[in-house]
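R.M. (postdoc): so does anyone remember the format we settled on? I'll just put the C-alpha cells first.
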C-alpha cells in the first residue's frame, strides 16, 4: 500500500533528479508534479531548498529547467496554479532564536546540545545553520517540515551522502513514518539506482535500531 500521497511522491522524484542533475527525467517529474497538484511556488520552494544540500549548481539548473517547463506549458495553454507566497514573519524573536527553535524540533537535540556541536571548531557554522538554514529556509511555510525533510532525504540518498543518517532522524522527528521512508527509498531505487537505495536502507535500519534503544 502506498504511504506517500501523489504530491509527496513527486516531491521525492523532483528532489532526486535535481540532486543528480538528471535534466531529462527532472523535466518529466516537474510536469507530473504540476499535474499532480503541486503549485508553481511549492516546486520553486523545493528547488530553492535543495541548494543547501546539493549545492547551487544543481539547484539553479533545476530552476532553469522548471522555467522552461512552465514556458512550454503556457504555450500549450496550460495555466498552472501559482500558489501562495510564504507568510510574513510576525514575532519579536531574533533570527538565531527562531532558527534554534526549528533546529531543536527537527534534530531532536536540546538547544544546549546544539550549541556544543561546533564548539572549538566553527562557531560560524552554528550561526549559519540556525539563522540561514533553519530560520531563512525552514522558516518559510510554503512547504511543511515534512515536505522539506522528504526533499532533503531524497536528495541525500540519491547522492549517496552519509549525512542522510541525520535527516532520517529529522524526518522521523517531524512526522514522516518509517513506511513512508521505505517507500521513498523504493522510489530512489526505481529512479536513481539500486545501490543508492540499498545504502539508504542500511542507514535507515541503523537509525531505527538506535531509536528503539534510546
Amino acid at each position: 500500500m502506498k504511504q506517500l500521497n501523489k504530491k509527496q511522491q513527486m516531491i521525492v522524484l523532483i528532489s532526486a533528479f535535481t540532486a543528480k542533475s538528471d535534466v531529462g527525467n527532472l523535466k518529466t517529474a516537474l510536469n507530473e508534479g504540476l499535474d499532480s497538484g503541486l503549485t508553481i511556488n511549492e516546486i520553486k520552494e523545493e528547488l530553492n531548498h535543495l541548494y543547501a544540500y546539493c549545492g547551487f549548481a544543481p539547484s539553479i539548473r533545476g530552476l532553469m529547467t522548471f522555467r522552461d517547463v512552465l514556458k512550454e506549458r503556457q504555450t500549450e495553454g496550460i495555466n498552472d496554479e501559482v500558489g501562495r507566497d510564504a507568510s510574513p514573519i510576525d514575532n519579536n524573536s531574533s533570527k538565531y532564536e527562531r532558527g534554534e527553535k526549528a533546529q531543536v524540533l527537527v534534530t531532536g537535540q536540546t538547544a544546549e546540545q546544539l550549541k556544543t556541536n561546533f564548539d572549538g571548531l566553527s562557531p560560524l557554522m552554528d550561526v549559519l545553520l540556525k539563522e540561514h538554514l533553519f530560520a531563512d529556509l525552514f522558516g518559510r511555510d510554503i512547504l511543511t517540515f515534512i515536505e522539506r525533510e522528504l526533499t532533503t532525504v531524497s536528495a541525500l540518498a540519491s547522492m549517496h551522502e552519509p549525512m542522510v543518517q541525520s535527516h532520517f532522524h529529522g524526518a522521523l522527528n517531524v512526522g514522516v513514518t518509517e513506511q513512508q521512508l521505505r517507500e521513498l527509498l523504493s522510489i530512489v531505487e526505481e529512479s536513481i539506482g539500486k545501490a543508492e537505495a540499498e545504502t539508504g536502507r542500511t542507514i535507515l535500519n541503523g537509525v531505527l535500531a538506535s531509536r528503539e534503544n534510546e
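R.M.: ...and that's the designed sequence above, right after the C-alpha cells. Also worth knowing: The mean pLDDT is 95. DSSP finds eleven helices and no strands in the chain.
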